[in-house]
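thought: fold this chain, then report.
action: predict
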Amino acid sequence: MTKNANGTAERSRLVGGIVLVIVALVLFSGWMLRRGPVNVRAERVIRQQITNIISTNGKIEPVSNFEAHAVAPAMVKRVLVKEGDQIKPGQLLIQLDDADARAQAAKARAELRGAEADLHAAEAAAGAAWTGLGPGPGGKAAHSPWLTRT
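observation:
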């Protein structure tokens, strides 16, 4: 083939491609016009709170795990929060029944008072025994390391 024949064949392919693109554009625009008018809904603008809710499935996991333990066994008396409540650091979450702990504290205080009374009685008896020793050798009071007063 000659150079002129190649140029003509190339030119006819280029023209055919352009015609094909033009036909495709005409068909596409005809299809778009056939769909009819697009419905548009308009609303009057009003000022109000925006609520944004997204419903989804998933699992919420804490950044770090925390386990709360009571210092002594006790029954839960009241739960002061509900599931989903926002809480602050240091906020009281539950109230434990402390009746047993109060009873044990009262018993311990009574035992302490009894021990203090026994101590005072022993000190009084030791004081009486101390005065009964009288002066030691050389006219000085007898000294006992167990009977020293503090």
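thought: worth noting. Helices lie at 3-34, 99-133.
final: tokens above.
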